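JOB MANIFEST
job_type = single_chain_structure
chain_count = 1
residues = 86
[input]
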Amino acid sequence: MQFKDAGPDAREGLEISSRFRMLIEERIERLEKDADGDEAQLANLYSSDHIRRQKRLVSMQRAEAQRIRHFLENSGTRIPPPLMTL
């Protein structure tokens, strides 16, 4: 059985827990912070090959942060069910 590509609209209606959303937001912050730090290290590099790889690393970190941010924008936060009273 073959599956069709769900496409970019497949995430509509996806709900994630607030805890999972918080973890994802922390991951985005780490990626962006790491990208900034890795970009600052470019001034200390001499090898053109090393500089090229470092720039690629920074680019990939920012692209991943953007991809995850897009996922969050297209997903909702699940509201937990009310707790039962005793």
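[summary]
Residues 1-6 have pLDDT under 50 and may be disordered.
The CA atoms of residues 17 and 24 lie 11 Å apart.
exit_status = 0
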